[in-house]
Amino acid sequence: xxxxxxxxxxxxxxxxxxxxxxxxxxxxxxxxxxxxxxxxxxxxxxxxxxxxxxxxxxxxxxxxxxxxxxxxxxxxxxxxxxxxxxxxxxxxxxxxxxxxxxxxxxxxxxxxxxxxxxxxxxxxxxxxxxxxxxxxxxxxxxxxxxxxxxxxxxxxxxxxxxxxxxxxxxxxxxxxxxxxxxxxxxxxxxxxxxxxxxxxxxxxxxxxxxxxxxxxxxxxxxxxxxxxxxxxxxxxxxxxxxxxxxxxxxxxxxxxxxxxxxxxxxxxxxxxxxxxxxxxxxxxxxxxxxxxxxxxxxxxxxxxxxxxxxxxxxxxxxxxxxxxxxxxxxxxxxxxxxxxxxxxxxxxxxxxxxxxxxxxxxxxxxxxxxxxxxxxxxxxxxxxxxxxxxxxxxxxxxxxxxxxxxxxxxxxxxxxxxxx
Length: 420
Prior knowledge:
Elements (H helix, E strand, L loop, with lengths): L4 E2 L26 H6 L10 H11 L6 E5 L4 E6 L2 E10 L21 H10 L2 H9 L8 E10 L2 E10 L13 E6 L2 E7 L14 H9 L1 H5 L2 E3 L5 E5 L5 E10 L3 H4 L3 E8 L2 E8 L7 H6 L2 H5 L10 E8 L6 E8 L11 E5 L2 E8 L8 H9 L1 H4 L7 E3 L6 E5 L3 E12 L2 E2 L1
Antiparallel strand pairs: 1-2, 2-3, 3-8, 4-6, 4-7, 5-6, 5-10, 8-11, 9-11, 10-11, 12-17, 13-15, 13-16, 14-15, 14-19, 17-20, 18-20, 19-20, 20-21
């Protein structure tokens, strides 16, 4: 259902890059109640507490964001000014998420990402320490986690901290691994999240629903796509509950611009052993939910200890010609000891083009899939004529929990107009 309400149709108007935090266009920066009174000749030697309080409240307001468009009940398009953030830095890549999980250790769903990293920092008092050191530069008590330096395939850097009005007054003795980051002015899609189901808030009741919304329904309802010139970020309250998700966006005018945040890398995959669930044509059970019901039995084996965080989805030929069964599971080192509740399948190795995206938006592969099966020729193969699609093998989707999903499309070499 499209509930869009157009407020400001022209992209790029409003807040200007470099404009001061919390400063409206045409407004003098830093004009507080005491300065207004000063213009009338009021200049006490000791500032009254009420004026100090008013200045503090004025300084603690969120930076201005201008409403551009109402997309749905929980999603708006907003323009935001440049943002300065001081926070703890955590590089995340394909191996750094660790083995065995976090915050429970009973399943791979608890890998370390910006969401769990923030809860860890809040719960252990690191955020309170940082806020005390920032002092008067702190704009508000909401925690901000910015995803920056995204490389695709779930490789990015998280800065979890606070917005500040300036870097100039910060002490040198910040906590270990703290950095300063300037987020450029940009247009954002803003989604509300209410995981705690509080009556005074509204939003998606699960953060992953908001993540997948950006790679799914949002793309269908609007012409907006991910803007790699900006940085996606989330905000949290002081308890670590997520409040909002911001995704940098712009209007796509042509096909290449629509998919310009995708990345393509030629790779050779080895044959991979997969412990998985399978649903056949006509089965009503969702294959992913089916595997989640038995995955702990797989993870309990020695064969799975290195592969808890990567899931693979792929089709296999059905019993009747032209039909396919759906498979979903995790990679294992060996089939020895794998429980009988799962199937044991080996994916063929060979040359693949790995299609990833700079968006760090949950495990929804819809955008890479759309390119793999609908636009591979014009977006990749046209620039790599030595390769062609190999339809004797199947495409493979890899899901990296709460970070990204990507697609491996099988290719083969072409020589003198013939396939090798």
